[in-house]
DNA sequence: ATGGTGGCAACGCCA
């Protein structure tokens, strides 16, 4: 089962680039972030015509997550638990059943800039809530995949110019520590199991020729429960997507699971 | 170098 995460930066703006990538990469499951659309305006037909089931959790203008799956999705849940006052659409869960059942979590973690400030406080509180949900998911002892735009650069080797990010919410020590606290519950960050570990990125800013200079960062991650990590066959980043017409500033990151 | 680029949606906010 090929499972991908892709921050598309607007579903309407990616009306050509996203289907083109789906047709060539043929993922079984895609976790989308920043659909920037309400559910009613999401172009379901384009994906249903390609054989995908579609579940969305959108909002007007900003954020928004979705799941596309060639296998039916069950027990869909929208919103990260513990956020009664949180109206931002950043979390969706569903179960997909292939050879075995896999619990999928699609997430768009808050950016948090500028730091310090209320946006950074929101990022850290959201990560604390995510840690609670991640811990609860482990109790089921089933394959779990938590994938999305984490807005966290885990290590210096995950940035072309780490010195440029030292005061940024994506790379501050507190952000990285909160990421490790989730990881150390017992999750495996799939791409980090690959060698070499440096020089691989999933985001290049639109500004200042970041793509042309390969000035990227790796912030899109797939975290696997032990039962999912046991099934991991392959992990990759579809870097070339960034060089095409009308690209998102992120590219797809994917895994193959024996599931 | 306090700009630069892009999306959404409406002349500003977010990344």
Q: How far apart are the termini?
A: 6 Å
Number of helices: 5
Overall spatial form: globular
Give the overall average pLDDT: 97
Spans of at least 5 consecutive residues with low confidence: none
How much helix is in the residues?
10-25%
How many beta strands in the DSSP annotation? 14
Secondary-structure element order, N to C: EHEHEEEEEHEHEEEEHEE
Task: Describe what this molecule looks like in 3D.
The mean pLDDT is 97. The protein has helices at 17-25, 44-48, 118-138, 173-183, 226-229, and strands at residues 2-7, 29-33, 53-57, 65-69, 73-78, 91-97, 101-108, 144-149, 188-189, 203-204, 216-217, 220-224, 232-237, 253-257. The protein is globular. Helix 3 runs parallel beside helix 4 (173-183). 19% of the residues lie in helices and 27% in strands. The strands form three sheets. The protein has a six-stranded mixed beta sheet with strand order 3-4-2-1-14-13. Strands 5-6-7-8-12-9 form a six-stranded mixed beta sheet. A two-stranded antiparallel sheet has the order 10-11. It starts with a strand and ends with a strand. The protein has 259 residues and is an alpha+beta fold. The chain has one domain: 4-Layer Sandwich (Deoxyribonuclease I, Chain A), CATH 3.60.10.10. The chain binds one DNA strand of 15 nucleotides through loops. Residues 4-250 form the Endonuclease/exonuclease/phosphatase domain.
Would you spell out the secondary-structure blueprint of this structure?
Blueprint: E1 2-7, H1 17-25, E2 29-33, H2 44-48, E3 53-57, E4 65-69, E5 73-78, E6 91-97, E7 101-108, H3 118-138, E8 144-149, H4 173-183, E9 188-189, E10 203-204, E11 216-217, E12 220-224, H5 226-229, E13 232-237, E14 253-257
Parallel strand pairs: 1-2, 7-8
Antiparallel strand pairs: 1-14, 2-4, 3-4, 5-6, 6-7, 8-12, 9-12, 10-11, 13-14
Helix pairs in contact: 3-4
This protein binds one DNA strand of 15 nucleotides through residues 9-10, 12-13, 34, 36-37, 60-63, 111, 113, 151, 205-209, 249.
């Amino acid at each position: 089962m090929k499972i991908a995460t892709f921050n598309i930066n607007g579903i309407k703006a990616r009306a050509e680039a996203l289907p083109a990538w789906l047709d060539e990469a043929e993922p079984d499951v895609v976790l989308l972030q920043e659909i920037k659309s309400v559910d009613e305006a999401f172009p379901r037909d384009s994906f249903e015509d390609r054989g995908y089931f579609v579940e969305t959790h959108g909002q007007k203008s900003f954020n928004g997550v979705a799941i596309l799956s060639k296998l039916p999705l069950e027990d869909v849940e929208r919103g990260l638990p513990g956020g009664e006052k949180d109206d931002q659409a950043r979390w969706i869960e569903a179960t997909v059943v292939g050879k075995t059942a896999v619990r999928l979590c699609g997430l768009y973690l808050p950016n948090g800039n500028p730091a310090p400030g209320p946006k950074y406080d929101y990022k850290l509180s959201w990560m604390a809530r995510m840690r609670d949900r991640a811990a609860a998911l482990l109790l089921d002892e089933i394959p779990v995949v938590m994938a999305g735009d984490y807005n966290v650069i885990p290590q210096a080797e995950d940035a072309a110019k780490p010195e440029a990010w030292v005061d940024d919410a994506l790379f501050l020590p507190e952000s990285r520590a909160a990421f490790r606290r989730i990881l150390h519950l017992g999750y495996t960050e799939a791409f980090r199991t690959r060698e070499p570990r440096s020089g691989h990125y999933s985001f290049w800013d639109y500004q200042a020729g970041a793509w042309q200079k390969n000035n990227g960062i790796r912030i899109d991650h797939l975290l696997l429960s032990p039962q999912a990590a046991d099934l991991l066959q392959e992990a990759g980043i579809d870097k070339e997507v960034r060089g095409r017409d009308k690209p998102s500033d992120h590219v797809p990151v994917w895994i193959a699971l024996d599931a």
